[in-house]
Amino acid sequence: MTLLQRAGVNLGYKLLVFPALIWGFAALFPGLIRFATVWQPIAISGLFILTGLIADETILPRAGNLPATFQGFLFMTAVLWASQFLFSGSRVTGMGALALGLLLGMAELCMHRWILQQREKQEKSS
Length: 126
Fold this sequence. Notes:
By secondary structure, the protein is mostly helical. It has one domain (3-121). The chain has helices at 3-28, 39-63, 65-86, 94-125, and strands at residues 33-34, 91-92. The longest helix is centred in the C-terminal third of the chain and has 32 residues, at 94-125.
């Protein structure tokens, strides 16, 4: 699988999974995360998708799955928590950011495993 194909599958996965988890978590746990506007989860998802696509091809191969996933978890947790200060009227508790960051990190752990397997197959075939 080429870089372009791998990135396309990764993009499709992230486009489906990130918004679904972010909106779903906020709907299930409004006491932990409350978005003031529809644009907040869209902006957060977009940021996570963009940084994730880049990090999955640069940091992941160098650091490995667990360290890269942990770095992503820290980044996503911090962004989720800080987003409440950028969007007036929203509320993201520390526990909400931590729990959703962990959930997103678990989703990324699976995708990272697949990406690394595809990279390994590509290296063996070249």
